[in-house]
Amino acid sequence: MNSPSKALMTRILVGYLGLYPTLLLVLTLLKPITEHQSFPMMVLIEVIVLVPVTQLISFPLAGWLITQLKNFKNLF
């Protein structure tokens, strides 16, 4: 696989690792608050919480994890 394709696949993997668990956690924690809201209001509340958490915590953590796995793989 050439470098641009490999870099793209790594970014996609970081996105999956960063977004999916965060989305599950945020939706679960916000359910008591959002379950009686209209759909647009529910989505707004979830996005207000989800975007900073993913950008500041989840994506950097997922990127770090991928880097550690690559370094571990290079040891062997």
TrEMBL record:
Keywords: Membrane, Transmembrane, Transmembrane helix. The chain crosses the membrane at residues 12-30, 42-66. It comes from the Bacteria. This is Putative membrane protein.
